[in-house]
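Q: Can I see a sequence and its folded structure?
A: Here is a first one.
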Amino acid sequence: MTVPYWVQDAIFYQIFPDRFANGDPGNDPPNVEEWGSKPTLWNYQGGDLRGIIQKLDYLLDLGVTALYLNPIFLSPSNHRYNTSDYYKIDPKLGNRADFDALVDAVHSNGMRIIIDGVFNHCSRGFFAFADLLENGMHSPYKNWFHVNDFPLDAYTQGDAEKYAAWWNFKSLPKFNTDNPQVREYLLDVALYWIEAGVDGWRLDVPNEIDDDAFWASFRQIVRSVNPDAYILGEIWEVDPRWVDDQHFDGLMHYPVRNALLESLTGQINATQFGDKVESLLQAYPSENIRAMYLPLGSHDTERLHFKLNGNLDKIKLAFLFQFAYPGAPAIYYGDEIGLDGDKDPDCRRAFSWDPNNWKGDLRPWVQQLIALRKSHPALRRGEYFRLLADEKVYAIARKLGNEKILIGLNLSDDIKTFLIPVDALWEDGQEVKNYLNHESLGVINGQVELKLLPWSGVLLG
């Protein structure tokens, strides 16, 4: 299969549009709340597409090369996973001209943009479901959904029983993708926005459309317009079925995040961590491994800062490993400044544009890691192999041609001094540099001696 060439070099930044930046107060809803208000399932804080355009300089300065936007289509909710009109930008985010301006600005700065596609379910306000509610069994759209009985009872409390809905939420009726008209509609949506200039789709719960033929058609149509479009599936588990030339280029690689958080919270030791992340490299073809989307958090998870109890050393170590591991590192907006938040909706807080609220030196650290990943192809494309693992220390190498980089992690509360065998990398007498602080170390008897503070790491080359 052909994976888009650019993904393995990408640095993604995920934006929840209502909470990143308010660039046009004129499109704020009348009930907009103050920026930074406690996030709820229903409140709006005014973020929009113009806000993203205005803050592109911030993202470029950080080193970001690709944006992933949560849903931007017309919807009755702030998260917009219940789409009412797949062809219309939600007016609270702007209009089609704003969208076109964003795509142009992104591309003119050498960046890419992918958008969220929610094709398993829609909102009750979607035209076909609204017709079904109005006309019942006489609706021409009754076969667009999975109807068990009439009347549909779409607005009372309780689970959906008269029709299939995502997790039985009445507000999220599930499409019948076996219906050729539904397939045609959804595939046209996919085509429309690729033709509008987006560089790919992130697909929401695609495993719930358990239909290989649908996804093969989706891929074919998207790639017919843009052969370099990135097709990313939200699959939470290890499942190779979804990665091939009939499905997706990569997946949201949550298993890496899970292993990392388990190690940083003491649930597994360094050797167990190494075993987990190395086994994941064997689960998929190598080109798809490099096209995996590597998150440390998302709109669906607790914030990194929250999960690690605000421990900046652990947070920085998490980023260090993320940028050293194969795949496309993805920053969830605000994680680079230490934005906090429990599970959703709390993880969808407004970005603070006051640098006084940014935690420690976290942003410069992420900026440095991005620069290092960009300047060292081995970190993006190189072979990955273990050098050392014990209960507290994990060290690996990335190697591409003559470029060799060592990453060492102290996954413990103790200061650790240890010897790493490096005869597969360097010769005795060579000097190697720690790119994170520019200190030099010598290779003696095929080893490098490292002294690492608790929850810290090195990147040597």
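Q: Show me another, different protein.
A: A second, unrelated one:
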Amino acid sequence: MRKTVHQPSAPPAQPVRFILEGPRLALSGRLDIAALEGLDRPRSLRMAEGCRGIDVAGLERVDTAGAWFLVALQQRAGEGVAITGAAPGTAQLIETVRRNLAPPAAAKGRATPLLDRLEAFGRKSDRAGRKALSLVSFLGQVVAAIAMLPVRPRRLRLTAMVHHCQEAGLAAVPIVALMAFLIGVVLAFQGATQLRQFGAEVFVVDLIAISVLRELGILLTAIIVAGRSGSAFTAAIGAMKMREEVDALKTLGLDPIEILVVPRVLALIVMLPVLGFIADVSGLIGGALMSWIELGVSPAVFQSRLVTNTDVWHFGVGMIKAPFFALIIAIIGCYEGLSVGGDTDSLGRLTSTSVVLSIFMVIVMDALFSIFFAVVGV
């Protein structure tokens, strides 16, 4: 006589639960069509606003309806927010649903209502404010890590810092020198064309010296470094984030800011003034050469007028700006790199964002410095 043994059935999975863990939204339980029927979807979608990541590692079951809801949740969270922790089958289902979603219907010929525009402006302002606060917080963490180096000097990754000095500084010397040389040539040519009308050609020396030493030398150098080194910082750290190397560092008890960010920040702070000095010299050489060719101002006359009529503070103003520009470029580049999600789309988008935001902030900081030095009379 056969005896049937009844195995206890596994308890049914619980409906989906939403847990806010700081800036991350974690989902657990069961996310299928049955769970969605009893879900307050508008309220659930609002929970994704402002979050920087959606973790679905705790979900036990996801069907097509659940994948559609996850895509809607990601769209509500905004650009750059990635869905992480999904099993391979779930990730493939989510991607299939995303590809087959119908594009939003274009409202042709209809003006956007005023309330919708105000809502969109408010959402963008809220995202910008949250990002600004997050950047300030990140800056504080980096400054705190740097401030602890004199107390614990062994924490400084000197080899990594020297490597980044070479990559961000020495490797950029040719392009920076060439750019500054050409800027000096253009300034001398345009200045000669205008000043010749008033018989004041000799003042082209003052024009070149003040423009290059005070503003254009360091500003254009910072813009080149932002496009070259700032984007490299974002791409390198973002690739490590995609390969989960940053998470591995945290698992080992290592601080990613101390290992990845601090060497890059210190390297750029050291090298940008050097690049600015090289740009100043190259710009003056280019201006002197064009003045000699176009106006007949010999190098000796150019040097004599440069030394006599140019205040050393014009050079000092440019050098004072350099460390602040370097800090802005390095902080934004590393921050955007650590914000990369698990897909290549976010890597490319945030690399572009890093360059644009760095250049914008450098120009804003230069304007603030110009106002400050005008007020103090320098």
